[in-house]
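Support reply, case 0932

Customer input (verbatim):
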Amino acid sequence: MISAKALPPTNGSSNGFHRPLTVIALDAMGSDKSPGPELDGAILACRSLPVHILLVGPQDKLEQGLAARPSLRKRAIEIVPASEWITMDDKAVAAVRSKRDSSMRVGCKLVREGRAAAFVTAGNTGAAMATSKMVLGMIPGVDRPALTAVLPTSTGSPCIFLDVGANVDCKPHHLLQFAVMGEMYARSVLNIARPRVGLLSVGEEEGKGNQLTREAYPLLQSAGLNFVGNVEGRDLYNGRADVIVADGFIGNVALKTSEGLAKMVRDLLRESLKSTITSQVGAMLSRRAFEDFKRRLDYSEYGGVPLLGINGACIIGHGSSNARAIFNAIRVTAQFAESGTNKRIAEAVAGMHDASAAVTVDD
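Our regenerated output:
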C-alpha cells in the first residue's frame, strides 16, 4: 500500500526538481475513460512539472494501472484510496450525499486538511461544484462560486469568461463578485497588469440589456475595476476585454455554442482540404498552420477551468479529457495554487465590502 500520509519529495527529489513540489490531488475516476487518461496525464506531469500527485480512487484498480505504466517518475505519484466515484449519469446533489467515500469528496478533503494544495477532476461538473462548496466552503464575502472558461482570442491573449454554468439565476451583486474574482485571476495567473472587464449584453450602450445587466452595470462601473462597459457576443474572441462577465445561463449557452461552432469549422475545413488533389497538396504545405489553428481551438490545451470563490483551489476539466488535457489541467492547477489567487480574491472582496459599508455610513 502506498501511504497517503507520506511527505512529498522536495529538494533533490526523484522528479529532478530542486524546489518544493506542489502537491495536487487528482480525481482518478473523473473522465469518461478513467482512469487511463488520469494515470497517463499524471505521469506526464511528474516528468516535466514540479508537482507531486495524490491519485485518488480505488486502490487495486490504480495500482494495476500504474504497474502497467513503468515510469521513473512513479515515486512522485501516491495513491489515496477512495472506494466510490461519481459518474456523469449520477444526479449531482444526490450522489454527493450518498457517496461519502467518493474520489471527489476524498480529494477535496485532502485540500481542506492541507495535504494537497489543490484538487483536479474531469468528472461530473455539478457534483464537483457541490462537493467543493460543501467540503471546502466559500471564500468569506463570496456568495456563489463561478465556473470560469479561458477563451482564445484573435489577439493571441486569452479571455476569462465567467460564469459559464455554476449559477443559472443571478443577482446584480453576484455579477460584481464574478468580475472581481475574474479580474484577480487574470492578474494572478495570466499576469495581466490591469485587466479590462466587460459585461456581456445585447448592445454596447449603457442602457442596453435585460434588468440584470442594467442593474449590474453601475455596480461594476463604481467598483474600481478597469471596466470597459457592455460587450457583445462577438467580443468574446476579439480581445476587446480580458475578463467578460455573465450569469451562468447566458454564459453556458455562449460557451456551448462556441464549442459547437469550433467543431463545425474544424470538420468543414478537414472536408474541404480532402476534396481535391490541389487542396490536399495545399494542406500538406500548410500543415504547421493548420496544426496551430487546431491547437488554439483545442480544449485539451487549456486543461481545465477554475471554480472561483471556493475556499481552496479546484480545477474542473472536460469529461472527454485525454492524457494531454489532464496534464494541462495539472499544470494550470499548480499555477493557480502557487499564485495565491484565493487570498487575493478574499482581500479584494473584503475591500469591496468595506467600501460599500463606508458609502452606506456617509449616506
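We compared this against your earlier run and they match. Two observations from our side: Residues 150-271 form a domain with the Isopropylmalate Dehydrogenase fold (CATH 3.40.718.10). The chain has a mean pLDDT of 84. Please reopen the case if you see a mismatch on your end.
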